[in-house]
Design a protein that fits this description.
The protein has a domain at about 20-160: Immunoglobulin-like (Sandwich). It is of the alpha+beta class and about 210 residues long. It contains 2 helices and 11 strands; from the N terminus they run E-E-E-H-E-E-E-E-E-E-E-E-H. Helix content is about 20%, strand content about 35%.
């Protein structure tokens, strides 16, 4: 907008931009991916099927946070919590230094520019045999232009080898129905049948 002073004849101008974005279009957005550090982002992405963990062995878990929107973010906060099973991811810390921030912590003032990313890491203490763990990592940030808070989360699942009391034998379904005592009886019965058949064959050979 422009105008000219009636007395001074000086031209003045002013502007006040207004911006808006439709959902799913241009605007702020953020993404977090959680994965087993030793397996990498692809093989270690256990948000569907659980990671098979060695009992009593600590597991390092990494996070990758990316500004997937078209707006710079501020006040970025990373959290992690256990939602099922036992144990929790401890000592979570993020390295913001490649982006000009601190090299540790879980909160950063920003600016977190579009397309940039940073890494975090934490440690899940070793689980006992038969235990399982599910946790969710989350991140929030605020668009510096729109003031919109964006958030994302990603879960990670783990289970120790031998979970469920597996013996390593083929699962026939019998054990689930009859229990360990009944299964022992069935095995004893099967052994008796085999011995009886062998005895009959020996008797037939002798009589022949």
């Amino acid at each position: 907008m422009t105008a000219i002073g009636a007395g001074t004849r000086i031209q003045v101008a002013a502007k006040d931009p207004w911006k808006a974005w439709t959902p799913g279009g241009r605007g702020p957005a953020i993404d977090i991916e959680k994965w087993s550090t030793d397996k990498g982002p692809r093989a270690g992405d256990h948000d569907g099927s659980p990671a098979h963990l060695e009992p009593s062995k600590d597991q390092s878990i990494s996070f990758t946070i990316t500004n997937t929107g078209a707006e710079t973010l501020r006040h970025v906060v990373v959290r992690d919590r256990t939602i099922a099973g036992v144990g929790r991811v401890r000592n979570v810390t993020c390295d913001f230094s490649p982006l000009g921030g601190p090299d540790h912590g879980t909160t950063w003032a920003g600016p977190f520019e579009p397309g940039e990313h940073f890494q975090c890491v934490g440690v899940l203490n070793g689980l006992l045999p038969g235990q399982h763990h599910t946790d969710v990592a989350s991140v929030t940030g605020i668009g510096i232009e729109t003031g919109i808070t964006v958030r994302d989360r990603d879960r990670w699942l783990g289970v120790t080898t031998g979970a469920g009391g597996s013996t390593g034998l083929p699962d026939t379904g019998i054990g689930a129905r009859v229990g360990p005592v009944g299964l022992l009886g069935l095995l004893s019965l099967a052994g008796g049948v085999i011995l009886l058949r062998r005895q009959r064959r020996a008797d037939e050979a002798t009589s022949g």
